[in-house]
Specification:
Layout lengths: L2 E4 L6 E4 L3 E3 L2 E3 L5 H6 L8 E7 L4 E7 L6 E8 L1 E8 L10 E7 L4 E5 L3 E7 L4 E8 L7 E3 L20 H4 L4 H6 L6
Length: 185
């Protein structure tokens, strides 16, 4: 059974899962089409990704331009992350707002991120394994990054000097995103 929890941002849901443990270990369903359909989370996924990150790595804030935007379902297999989803739908009443949520294998939490969001996370432990199901294929030509430490978004990552890729460190500001008519989600 999966429980869907609404957030203050339309379309962005916290999903609480159940795991079963015994003397052999642990079992958990990561995806069940029937249950998701019952929760009104209907989706055809195109791609599954796994990332393995060291402690203090930030990945993001990533998004893809139309018509290649992606819906993502984020879960953690091992370790813990601070997961961040920023509403970048320019016509949304929650435009520029974000949700930051700790997700781990222990808390059985996932995040359903609709199209029109920038997404990133901070690995809180070494060897953190994150899985994300994506509706919409990765498209390098349409990928963009908003800087993780953008002053206008003012996301509290709880860290000053994360490990970050060159590409992510060269992301655009949120102000640039707002002004660019070609970056419309």
């Amino acid at each position: 059974m999966i429980k869907k929890i609404s957030t203050k941002i339309a379309g962005l849901y916290i999903l609480k899962n159940i795991s079963y443990e015994d003397n052999r270990g642990l079992f958990k369903e990561l995806w069940n089409k029937r249950i998701m359909n019952d929760l009104q989370l209907k989706c055809s996924f195109d791609q599954d990704n796994i990332s393995i990150s060291k402690k203090h790595v930030i990945r993001g804030l990533h998004f893809q331009n139309k018509p290649h935007e992606q819906l993502k379902y984020i879960q953690v297999i091992q370790g813990r992350i601070l997961d961040v989803a920023v509403d970048i739908r320019k016509k949304s009443t929650t435009f520029g707002q974000y949700l930051a949520l700790e997700i781990s294998n222990q808390n059985n939490t996932g995040l359903w991120i609709p199209k029109g969001f920038a997404h990133g996370f901070l690995a809180l432990e070494d060897n953190t394994i994150v899985t994300y199901k994506c509706a919409g294929l990765y498209n390098r030509e349409n990928e963009q990054t908003i800087k993780w430490n953008d002053p206008e978004l003012n996301i509290n990552w709880g860290i000053n000097n994360p490990k970050i890729s060159t590409k992510d460190s060269q992301g655009i500001s949120f102000a640039t995103y707002k002004e660019d008519k070609n970056l419309e989600l």
